[in-house]
Amino acid sequence: MKKTLALLLSAMMILPAASIAAPKDKPGNGELKNKQNKSEWSLVWSDEFSGPEIDRSKWTYDIGNWIVDEDGNGITNGWGNNEKEYYTDSSENAFIEDGKLVIKAKKEQVTDQFGTYDYTSAKLKTKGLFSKKYGRYEIKAKLPTGKGLWPALWMLPEDDKYGAWAASGEIDIMEAWGSRPNTVSGTIHYGEGWPNNKYTGKEFELPKNRGIDKWHTYALEWEPGELRWYVDGELYQTQNKWYSKGTDNAANFAYPAPFDQEFYLVMNLAVGGWFDGEVDETTIFPSQMEVDYVRVYDLKKRDYREPVEPVAGPVVLPADAKQPLEDGNLVYDQNYEEPITIVDQSGEALDTMHWNFVKLPDFGGAGRLELEEIEGKNFAKTIIENPGSQLYSLQMIQNISLGNGGKYKVSFDAKSDAARSMMVKVGAGAERGWVKYSNEESFNLTSDLQTYEFTFDMLNDTDIAARLEFNLGGNGTNPVWIGNVRVEDITGEPVDEEGPKQPLPDGNHVYNGTFDQGGMDRMIFWNFSVEDAAATASVSEETRELHVAIEDGGSHPEAIQLDQQGMNLVAGNDYKLSFKARADETRTIQAALLNKSGTTDYSGINIIELTSNMEEHTVEFTMPEDVSDSEALLVFSFGNGVGDVFLDDVVLLKTSNIPDYGDIDLYPLKNGDFASGLDAWTNYIHYDATAGISVDNGEAKVAISNEGQETWSVQLIQGGLSLAKDVVYELSFEARSTVERNIEATVENSQYIRRLSEKPQLNSQMQLFTYEFTMPADEIVSFKVLLGKDALSPIGSHDVFIDNVVLKVKDAPSEQEPVTTPGIDNGTFSDGTTGWTAWWGDQWSGYAGGEMTSVNEELKVAISQVGGASYSPQVFQKDLLFENGSSYSVEFDARADVHRKMNVNIGKELSFDPWFIGYLPTQTFDLTNEMKQYRFTFMMDKETYDDGKIVFELGNILDGNAATNVYLDNVRIIKN
Q1: In this structure, are strands 341-343 and 356-358 parallel, antiparallel, or unpaired?
Q2: What is the b/e burial string over 755-764, where b = at least 16 CB atoms within 10 angstroms of the residue's CB?
Q3: Which of 499-513 are b and which e, b meaning 16 or more Cβ less than 10 Å from the residue's Cβ?
Q4: CA triplet 281, 285, 287: central angle to 5 degrees?
Q5: What pLDDT is recorded for position 202?
Q6: Distance between CA atoms of 396 and 342, rounded to whole angstroms?
Q7: Which residues, other chains included, contact 191 with Cβ-Cβ below 8 Å and sequence gap of 6+?
Q8: Which residues of 116-145 are buried (b: 16+ CB within 10 A; e: fewer)?
Q9: Could you report the per-residue pLDDT of 756-810, keeping only the tens digit for each?
Q10: pLDDT band at 278 (very low <50, low <70, confident <90, very high)
């Protein structure tokens, strides 16, 4: 039974059942086998249901149909599973009869504050009354049959120790499909919080003449690192591979989390839901499940097994699988040399060996796929005509073979022509219930070709037809280029623990500061060193705190050290380091933040007084105004003393909010005044709505004939907005409507998580609306104006006007053309070619041919021949001022009659070899025959010069050196 908000993912994964014969239908046979299995177990808790009524000291109830928060506000209906029953604590739905518990589902209407329901039933649980870690859990039950009935015997954690469902785990002892009367299953749920939860399980087939409507004993034996499922004494599955990862963790919790904490029991009979679908005319009501007893045992003849962390061994795929290529790649046809299969109708089969382009009409996605050569390799370019309503409206898919127990790395190169995001995942197809093998990974693409990668553990059964999916829909019309796709088995490769570490989602810069993650030593990301001393460092499962046992402390504090490398410290910001510590005797330790080599001290060497009480200590410091360090070192020094020192809950937070603005776009939204028409804007009109979007008198006009049935049925959108973590943004816009109505203004990421959501009310007068929000993460987001159904619908035909949309960093300086800094002259070419120079090569670079002119206030470089170097020919402008420590944004519009590449260099010209010093690496852009804006930023880390130079190279650039006409316009360099 699922306690999740995931709707489609609540369905049980269907795996091949174990070929195990169930016991014959004769009295006592099941009990005999259980006795044989239970000889080493001792009863510690039970309910035999021998009293006149349900024992309220052992059982409590869930009530209703909704998951609610602690204040009683509804979160989701149907218990997150689309269930149709209303659970009661009535004796009509749960009672004792003939020494058995009866849970009865009835067809009757009930109404509460959230709605009306057509069925009632009961869910009993021991939460707050009885919970246990490890043991044998045995339940004898008889279950109902009938489409849409879903009886379950299961367990949930008493405390969500590792985070929201399913990070803290769920154990399903038995679930049954009412429509499949001879099948039961056992499952575990684990992983991360929804939607990155995972599950594994197996089915058991009962004899045809002894289905779920007969008495059977369902049992689970749970030991550290192992779970075993039985039906009538027959073992049918063993599970020992799982993981748990918290929202704010850098690594998994140490195995065997989450199944190393107390769980309570749950018994219920659901009606409807994703598991067995809805009831039909054949389903009989009332229907009931009966429970003869519930018994919980502890081991009595031996200790519980020691958990054994799963060892990552080599994966051997079955003979009929797609085997890896010679270079280890599980993806075939990396260079797109085979035909790509187009799947544009539901039910069409995928090509199982090579690439597929999927654009199903159900979700409105429309587009095409073309091949384009980049740097000598083929890339698949998805041209998006309509992004559709879902991320999976357009997909590139290839089937790959994955083996149980393997660790895999997915890597690829990708770009767009502007900032946008793309979701990639690996999972199963319909035959396995669309179960996810990897997380749904979201990647922020830019106009620069970059390499992206992620890893995942394959904990499900081997799947020789897994799906690698690039989800390209639901997120704007910017095209996407994808190439060099690889999936590799990296089982056993170590984790890089020393690299730079971005702050975790809760802001903590320290990874595994709670000493409960990584391997079973719980020391991942920490380095312990001893020099001319004697000491050990360990973490026990019980305390989960670092224990430094010191026999010889050496002659100085640095003789024994614990450190973590890779703290990301930003110039000018305030920081607070906090941790808990104690010692067996009063003594001191030291704490400091240093640079990677330990030669620069950011925080001072802080002397910390310890006592025998675990107490919190803090260190506060401010980074220098001119220094940022992405690889700083956190160091604790324990030397020059003996005894035991304990450390826990290490946290390093940035307590001020001064972003590193070097790479932050102060004004990410473009063309907010619609002076360039609808450039940078897209729209979405759902099939149930009728609307047209245009620009009228410098305002965006949305002419709505029918607003549709959803708020999102009509949308004006600008996507690809790159926003930075911890930055406060200000959104403002003007709007009016020919009739009074509400609209919604949102800023949301590709997972539709809203960072801002407001509902301004419009009338016939143009009003200014202004809102502020703080970004919790670095993300590519979209600004959306939702103009569909509202509280007054149907509204009828009306027009909405929007203008002067501004999204900016709060308190950012006004956008204006720079005058003297850095000093670009005639960037709009309204004065012809004044200020610009062309150079056509020499005997060393190879001569180019052509001419530079100004046509229609654009710079035209007509190239008849390229030289032998990238910089022959070139156009440039000199005498530009670039100041040390300042950040600059470079913008320009460009196109070419024939697709080609162009390099942009900024630096200082010299009169001697090497003739030019670049201020940043060469920037390369792919020009098309469409005039587009290109943009990049850089930090000036060289000495201040007032004779800088910007160079547009149009020569022999590998794989993009066409002799053609190139056009430039609107060249700007802005000091941020």
Answers
A1: parallel
A2: bbeeeeebee
A3: eebebbeeebbbbbb
A4: 125
A5: 95
A6: 10
A7: 166, 167, 197, 198, 199, 242, 243, 244, 245
A8: ebbbbbbbbbbbeebbbebbbbbbbbbbbb
A9: 999 999 999 999 999 999 998 888 899 999 999 988 888 889 999 999 999 998 8
A10: very high
Annotate 827-866 with three-state secondary structure. Answer: CCCCCCCCCCEEECCCCCCCCCEEEEEEECCEEEEEEEEC
Q: What does the alpha-carbon distance between residue 885 and residue 882 come to, in Å, rounded to a whole number?
A: 9
The answer to whether residue 170 is catalytic is: yes
Cα dihedral sign, 30-217-235-213? positive
- pLDDT for residue 21: 30
C-alpha separations of 849 from 842, 854, 901, 955, 958 in Å: 11, 17, 17, 10, 18
Q: How far is CA 471 from CA 441, 666, 747, 796, in A?
A: 10, 29, 21, 36
CA end-to-end span of the chain: 54
Q: Which of 170, 203, 558, 779 is catalytic?
A: 170
- Candidates 971, 974, 973; CA nearest to 834 is 971
Instruction: Tell whether omega for the bond before 914 is within 30 degrees of 0, i.e. cis.
Output: yes
User: Is the whole-model pTM more than 0.85?
Assistant: no
Q: How far apart are CA 51 and CA 78, in angstroms?
A: 32
pLDDT digits (tens, 9 = 90+) for 412-471: 999 998 888 899 999 999 888 888 899 889 898 988 899 999 998 888 889 999 999 999
Q: Which of the following is catalytic: 175, 205, 488, 953?
A: 175
Residue 133 corresponds to which amino acid?
Answer: K
The tens digit of pLDDT for each residue in 59-102 reads 999 999 999 988 888 888 999 899 999 999 999 999 999 999 99
Q: Could you say which DSSP state residue 252 is in?
A: P
Describe the chain by its helix, strand, coil percentages, rounded to 5.
5, 50, 50
Pick from 808, 800, 787, 676: which is nearest to 732 by CA? 808
Q: What is the pLDDT of residues 373-396, one digit of tens each?
A: 998 899 999 999 988 878 889 999
Residue-averaged pLDDT of the chain? 89
